[in-house]
Structures are given as C-alpha cells and as structure tokens.
Amino acid sequence: MKLEQDDNLVIGGGQAVYADEIAEKTPFSGSQAIEFSRSLALLFAVACGLAVANVYFAPPLLDAMADSFGMSHATIGMIVSISQVGYGLGLLLIVPLGDLIDRRRLIAGQSILSALALLAVCFAPTSLALLVAMAAIGLFAVVTQALVAYAASLAKPHERGQVVGIVTSGIVIGILLARTIAGGMADLAGWRSVYAVSAVLTLIIAALLFHFLPRNEVRRTKIAYPKLIGSVFRLFVEEPVLRIRAIIAMFIFADITMLLTPLVLPLSAPPFSLSHTEIGLFGLAGAAGALAASRAGRWADRGHAQRTTGIALAIMLLSWIPVAFMQVSLWFLIIGVITIDFALQAVHVSNQSLIYRVRPEAQSRLTAGYMIFYSIGSAAGSLGSTLIYAYAGWAGVTLAGAGISTMALIFWALTRRLTPAGAMDQH
C-alpha cells in the first residue's frame, strides 16, 4: 500500500475542522510515499499483542495473587479493574498526543515505561504496591491504541478496515495467549515470573519499534495540551457515530470481562480443580476471534458494518446459553468462549472502521474517545463479575452477561436509524 501526503483536512459531522489547532502531518520524513509492507503490519500486530497481554496476564493469576496478598475473592477483581482505570486515563491523557507529536517516539517511550511498570508488579511487596503498579501497566498499555491509530493513518481509505483488522488480530491473539502463557509460567516459576519475562520482551519490542516504524514529522502548532485533551470531548459532541459506537463498545467489553475475569474461580475449585496451565489453555478456545477481526474489517470496507454489528451482537447474546451449562461439560464453555470472542471482535473492528471514516486527521483522539468507553466497560465488568460470583455463583454471572448482551442489542437496534448515512450499509 503506497501512502501519499494529503494536505486537505476532511470535515466530518457537519462541523468545520479546527485547522489552527490540529497538527498537520506528513506521514514520513519528506514527501516520499512508502510501502506499508506485510512485515511492518506484522510488527504492528506483535507489538500490540505484547502490550495488551501485559493487561490480560492477571485474570488467570487472580487466585495466586489473592493468596500472596491475602485478598478475598469478592475484592480480587480490583486487580483487573484498576488496570482498566489506568488504561482509561492513558486513553484520555496519552493517546491524543499521537495527533500532536512524533508517534514513533511516543510509542517507543510508552513501551519503555510499560517495562518499568511490569518490573514494579514483579517486585511488589504489598497489595497497595501491586495495585499502583497494575494501574501503571494499564496507563502505558494504551500504546496499542496509538499503534492502531497509526496503522489506520498509513492505510489507504478503502483498505483501512482490513489494515485495522490485521493489527487488531494481534491484539486478540495477545489477549488469548496472555492467559495461556501466564497460566503455564505461574505453574513453573510463580506468577511474578510472568511479569519479569514480559518486561524483558517489552524492552526488545521498544527497540524494534523505534528502529523500524516510519519517522513521523509534525509541524509546530499553537494548540496547547489541555486544549488537545478537550478536543476529545468536543468530538463526542460533534460526531454521533463516535457516541453510538463508543457506547456499544462499553457494552461488549463489559460482557467479555464478565465472562473471563471470574473464570479462574470455578475452574480452579472442585469439581474441576484445574491447574493454572490448564485454565490458561481456555484462552486458545477464543482464537477464532482473531479470524473474525480481519474478516469483519473486509465487511466494513464493503459497507456492511451495520449488518455485521447486528448479527454479531445476536451471536454474543446466544453465546451465554452454552456458557450457562459449564457445570455439565467444559465443552459448553469452550463453545461459548469461541462464539462470544468471535462476535466481540466482529463488532469491535466494525466500530473502529466506522469511526475512522469520520475525522481522518484526528484518529488518535477518535481512538481515545472510543476506547475510554471500552475501559469503562472492562472495569465495570471485571469488578462486577467477581462480586456477582461471590454472592450468586456462576448462574449469577451468566445472567448478568446475558443481560448486558441484551442491552447492547437493543441499543444497536434503537440507534441504527440515527447513524449518519455515510456509516450505513451499502447495498
């Protein structure tokens, strides 16, 4: 894919672009067009996968962490929730900088800080120190969104959905393998070893990103940092597509964390009594979601994002039926994990494809605004799921998950006609 400089700012949502406030960029040093190669796409995907894995190592390790710090099952969800709070802050405070400064340096810097946060978790002496370090991991893990927005800005408009799908596939695989790897390493060398090894790998990725990512020149602009952050909220006011798709994201990520966060608790207890390694293998059951991510991007490029969203949300709701019968057979759980993850990624990629059409010059801030709601949903689902499990068991978790899926489907149906024509399905 050859990428060319375009000095024209696209106007979205009937609102004028604030030309004096937005950094005008050339994608690379000079005005030469370059090739967005498969190897570069792979680097984007691998970097995203490792960064997001740092956030998702925790769920299969919750019982071990609880034992180390004397935390109860009702409150252990705080470990996951606090990382999502940090993630939300990073989305608001760090991701928008991608529209203002050199993204290559920003991405490499975040990766280095992520490695330091991982080491802090590894050596945390108390539960308070652990929670602070987990928040820092979430804060700097937003490098994934900087990478997604950067990849989208490099892609041709008609290929943007496919490129986002490839990079998002790396995120999906990172989430899934994080559980598998974390479980296996915890059994071999304890849960702290997971974060020590990841810190080393993250430093290696930081060096590779700084060396291979295209240089990104930004002309000086008068916009101040507080005004840049404020522009994220202004996009919510001006762009209905962003508002609608962000709320859908909140529902679907609350749904998936409602399933995955407390999963270690019933699986590690009788009658299953699975090891961390065996529990981690359930992450592989959702590998089909990676396939959905790329395919959904192609569907969105062809104008079928709305239809894909509706079908996927219905699948997500139906997925809770086999999940509810986990106690009968673990095969029901495997089926549910596969289908719910497939549906999640189809909706997520469709969402991103639609919002990136709105303001191509503000992709980092669009990403921040959208993913803040992802973080809200994930934090609520993580904390709520362990509380529900503590008081209502697995039946309570499945009912709550199905309820969230139902609300998401109803919201999509009610807002479908409110979506601007440019985001509707093409026939």
From TrEMBL:
CDD domains: MFS_NepI_like. It comes from the Bacteria. One of its GO terms (molecular function) is transmembrane transporter activity. Keywords: Membrane, Transmembrane, Transmembrane helix. It holds the Pfam family MFS_1. The keyword Ubl conjugation does not apply. The chain crosses the membrane at residues 40-59, 71-94, 106-126, 132-151, 163-182, 194-213, 244-267, 279-296, 308-325, 331-349, 370-391, 397-414. The keyword Ribosomal protein does not apply. It comes from Phyllobacterium myrsinacearum. This is MFS transporter. Residues 40-420 form the Major facilitator superfamily (MFS) profile domain.
